[in-house]
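Much of the work behind modern protein science is quiet bookkeeping, done one molecule at a time. The protein below has been through that process, and both of its lines are reproduced in full.


***
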Amino acid sequence: MSSLTGARPEFGKVVVFGVGLIGGSFALGLKAAEQVDEVVGFGRSLATLTQALDLGIIDRVGANAGQEVADADLVLIATPVGQMAEIMARIAPYLGPETVVTDGGSTKSDVVAVARSAFAERIAQFVPAHPIAGAENSGAGAARADLYRDKKVVLTPLPENTVLNVARVRSAWEWCGALIHELDAQQHDRIFAAVSHLPHLLSFALVNDLALRDNHDLLFSYAASGFRDFTRIAASHPEMWRDICLANRVALLDELDRYRAQLDEMRDALQRGDGDALECTFALARNARRNWGEGQLR
């Protein structure tokens, strides 16, 4: 496929494992930019792969992973992180010398560890990444070409990565419209334990608590915009978030302990009837949230 300018696409063949929201949107983004000749998809469900084919997300359903990655320019592993080790082990012996592999996992230290085990002397061909652009809906039907536009994608390059391999992964995400940032894997996991993994855990916990009550129908019938906004992410993929929480459990446990301490302070203030303490907490939080919100609009 040639672009409208007549230039060849940057990527001839891209192989995507997991053609749902993350992987499917990546494929659609590259296609919208006319920067890929062919997208080959793999997944656990034939129904999902068929849907991805029908929606134009992929051009072919892959049959033999080793054969497909041998001549691929780029491979994206966009499955839940718990499935990545098996996929990496399956494709590692067959990687072409110029093939670059990346991922879309929300945790990085664990992914890097399994990648080192699977790819061994070929680890330079794996460039870890994390697109910060998820949504509560999942599956091929949720994929869209503009999902990554003006959204952050964090790369956590390895010491073994060549400048060229990092540049190729960076370029792929940039063609999807993303804004690229770099962190090391440990720093990444500590940050996202606080600002992503903990909020999901809290949202799941609140909805689960209410759902288990005898009067849950009555409670949900009165829930309004505040509840909707706070719990939107509880509609996210359970398997994916199970894997994320377990993979980043050390950092997440630390953040959970910090949050429990904050709740204990607020509980004590309530028990004492200490309105000044509550108002101080609320005011600090409001200012921080407003400053963050204004920054997001710039």
Remarks:
- DSSP finds twelve helices and nine strands in the chain.
- The longest helix spans residues 185-211.
- The domain at 188-297 is CATH 1.10.3660.10 (6-phosphogluconate dehydrogenase C-terminal fold).
- The first strand starts at residue 11 and ends at 17.
